[in-house]
UniProtKB/TrEMBL annotation:
It comes from Leptonema illini DSM 21528. Keywords: Hydrolase, Metal-binding, Metalloprotease, Protease, Zinc. This is Peptidase M48 Ste24p. It comes from the Bacteria. One of its GO terms (biological process) is proteolysis involved in protein catabolic process.
Length: 305
């Protein structure tokens, strides 16, 4: 056997070992969630990638505000809904978030899906489905849902969940866009604890009481959503393939209990304030016109919610 043959055999053996090692190795990216999955979940294509999102940062240097900026850059490329829907919800979220302690620039984005839902992301990003705008029947109900999601952000439920998951994965550094996408994927599938949901409910209730909206908004929003997701319904609207956004919402606990709880609270509030007019805002939701942009319309205000 000449030297050339021996060298060839050594190379073949080395190559075989390399192939074996690669097939057995479990290759892991810094995050299991890459850019594509979050957008595929929502059924949206990637239109552009902002250069700021490619910057690699140590995880411990990424504060919540930066998460919000990165996530907003992601959503800006495929924000759904009509311009009227987008402007309407953005105006409402700015009103709800005015004066919040964290001081984020809150941004709302619309996702086109018939499943009614809203969910919060770190840094003041709130995602609302087009189905939610169709399912709710008044601006007071929509504002209550938005206040609930703002509560999750202001009470640090979102960022705590992301940081806990990142710590568990022992990630040192990653591109900012990848960090943002990881947070998006996590929160789309995340189920808050019962305690956290209760805290966000209480946050929303406190906001509604201090606002000009009818206190029945929170309880009625739970009623609309419970009715929509009622497993006993058999109409064509509810017979659809599962969707991650709807599955997320169905993980929210005890809708009927929460509905009853806050409708009873609204009743008690009304008993204590029999002459105080509040806005239900049925026509405002239909017209996509925020309360704070219109002159006083007696038809939208009532002492009977």
């Amino acid at each position: 056997m000449n030297l050339r043959t021996i060298a060839l055999l050594i190379l073949l053996a080395g190559g075989s070992l390399l192939v074996f090692a690669l097939t057995k190795a479990e290759i892991r990216l810094p995050f299991e969630s890459t850019l594509a999955p979050a957008f595929q979940i929502l059924g949206k294509p990637i239109k552009r990638v902002d250069r700021a999102l490619t910057r690699v940062l140590p995880i411990d240097e990424v504060d919540e505000a930066r998460y919000g900026e990165a996530i907003a850059l992601r959503y800006e490329s495929f924000n759904g809904g009509t311009e009227a829907d987008q402007a309407y919800v953005q105006s409402l979220i700015e009103t709800v978030a005015a004066g919040t302690q964290k001081g984020f620039r809150y941004r709302a984005f619309i996702v086109e899906t018939r499943s009614p839902n809203a969910f919060a992301l770190p840094g003041g990003v709130v995602v609302v489905t087009s189905g939610l705008l169709e399912t709710l029947k008044s601006e007071s109900e929509l504002v209550a849902v938005l206040a609930h999601e703002v509560g999750h952000v202001e009470l640090s439920h979102c960022i705590d969940a992301v940081r806990l998951e990142i710590a568990a994965k022992k990630i040192g550094a990653a591109p900012l866009g990848e960090i943002a996408d990881f947070a998006m994927n996590l929160m789309m599938r995340h189920s808050y604890s019962k305690t956290q949901e209760n805290e966000a409910d209480e946050y929303a209730w406190a906001y509604i009481k201090s606002s000009s909206y009818a206190p029945t908004g929170l309880g009625r929003s739970f009623r609309r959503l419970r009715t929509y997701y009622d497993p006993n319904r058999s109409d064509n609207e509810t017979q659809r393939a599962p969707h991650p956004v709807s599955e997320y919402f169905q993980s929210h606990p005890h809708l009927e209990f929460r509905e009853d709880k806050y409708l009873e609270r609204a009743k008690a509030w009304r008993k204590a304030h029999p002459d105080e007019e509040r806005c239900v805002g049925t026509a405002l939701l239909v017209a996509r016109t925020p309360l704070n942009t219109v002159t006083h319309d007696p038809s939208q205000w009532s002492t009977e919610d």
